[in-house]
Write a structure and sequence with these properties.
single chain; 355 residues; Methyltransferase, Methionine Synthase (B12-binding Domains), Chain A, domain 1; Rossmann fold; five-stranded parallel β-sheet; 18 helices; 5 strands; binds cobalamin
């Protein structure tokens, strides 16, 4: 988008410069985010915004500016992939606020009020557009779809209090902990991954979603760790340099909730350390979690080493990596693979009872 500056009224250029300067003065982050090229485009966009606002106000057609605001937001999101949609929304809303304070200089008094109303509408539409992008069918359909949508939306707006509230309300409404874990939190994290993969959210937003979700999981610990035990023990860990530890954590938590004693070793556990822990704790079941397919080889090594050292110990494998394989677990000396932690619990409760 380029405007021929020399064809623009010099008064508008002066006004645009004031708005531009004010936005940079009031928002120190902007200086780091905008290189020279972006600054030039932003300046041109201010003039472009004047144009659209003037057309809408003169014709008294609010939609002209509203449609433009949503279009501009999506354009900027595509142009500034390093910035989060939430951040670009903040920039735009801030811009519309400043523009509103200059409306008396752009319009006659009666039209200035109209301009401010249009700018407010543009701000609220831009706010709504932040999480207006296609979500996967798996995410949108099925049990508790509305709650997970609300949860994801709170996360994407960095609304920590709202995210906690949604999960607490789900718990208070009687939804089972297993369903909160698997239907709401697990599927929301899966969608976070999809959005990151499609470049719709930045790495820092994905990290925030993860750390907030981990904090929210910890809110259940007083409940989880106050269940009466059944003498069964499980050791869970992630193999290789695996940093994805929330799946293993959920497996461990849900077993603890079902009365098992759970020992979770966390992420990136070397096989020798795992064997040491198994020697110490002598669990009924060891559950290995793999998310990244490149650690399947190490998981296979771990399975063989466990079989050799503890021939009668039950071994379960799971995690996203197995879903990307051609049922590789069927060729391994493991007792079971399940997709979900809850399926493993149902199997393990029965199996350990019979042993
Ligand atoms: C959060 C996250 C991260 C975080 C993890 C932080 C943490 N503390 O865990 C961080 C930022 C570290 C990360 C890093 C990376 N990530 Co990442 N990450 C994710 C994300 C968004 C969510 C993972 C998660 O927590 N899911 C929620 C849990 C609860 O679900 P789950 O793991 O599936 O577990 C459930 C079941 O699978 C099962 N289960 C799990 N384990 C077991 C075990 C047993 C025995 C059983 C029975 C069941 C079971 O039970 C759980 C509950 O039901 C996923 C998206 C996704 N689709 O999973 C991407 C994702 C896994 N990451 C991906 C990538 C590419 C990476 C990086 C390579 C990015 C990079 N360039 O650096 C690195 C690799 C790091 C490494 N060496 O491991 C890709 C992997 C693609 C691929 N090729 O396979 C994904 C799929 C994103 C995507 N859509 O592209 N990531």
């Amino acid at each position: 988008m380029s405007l021929l500056l020399n064809s623009v009224d010099p008064k508008l250029i002066t006004l645009a410069q004031k708005i531009f300067d004010q936005q940079f003065a009031q928002d120190p982050k902007l200086g780091q985010e905008m290189d020279e090229r972006r600054k030039q485009l932003m300046f041109q966009d201010i003039l472009y915004n004047f144009n659209f606002l003037t057309t809408a106000v003169t014709l008294e057609d609010e939609q002209i500016f509203s449609s433009y605001a949503v279009w501009l937001f999506e354009l900027l999101c595509n142009l500034m992939k390093d910035l989060d949609r939430d951040r670009i929304k903040d920039q735009m809303v801030h811009h519309y606020q400043i523009l509103g304070t200059f409306s008396d200089q752009l319009f006659s008094p009666d039209k200035a009020a109209l301009a401010r109303a249009y700018l407010e509408k543009a701000s609220s539409l831009t706010e709504a557009a932040v999480d207006d992008y296609p979500l996967s069918e798996q995410f949108l359909k099925g049990r508790h779809a509305e709650i997970r949508r609300a949860y994801l939306s709170a996360l994407l707006r960095s609304d920590t209090t709202g995210a906690i509230q949604i999960i607490k309300e789900a718990e208070a409404s009687g939804i089972r902990l297993e369903e909160i874990y698997e239907d709401i939190i697990r599927l929301s994290m899966l969608e976070v991954g999809e959005l990151w993969h499609q470049n719709k959210i930045t790495v820092d937003k994905e990290h925030y979603c993860t750390s907030t979700t981990q904090m929210i999981l910890s809110l259940f610990y007083p409940t989880i760790f106050s269940q009466t035990g059944n003498q069964n023990k499980i050791v869970t860990c992630c193999i290789g340099s695996e940093l994805h530890e929330m799946g293993g954590r959920m497996v461990s938590d849900l077993f603890e909730y079902h009365g098992w004693e759970s020992i979770y070793l966390g992420s990136a556990v070397p096989v020798s350390s795992l064997l040491h822990a198994l020697e110490e704790h002598k669990p009924d079941l060891v559950a290995l979690s793999v998310t990244m397919p490149q650690y399947l080889g190490l998981c296979h090594d771990a399975v063989q080493a466990i079989r050799k050292a503890f021939p009668s110990m039950l071994i379960a494998v799971g995690g996203r990596a197995f879903q990307t394989s051609g049922k590789i677990h069927e060729r391994w000396p493991v007792d079971i693979y399940t997709e979900l932690a809850t399926d493993l619990i149902a199997w393990a409760d029965e199996k350990v009872k019979k042993l």
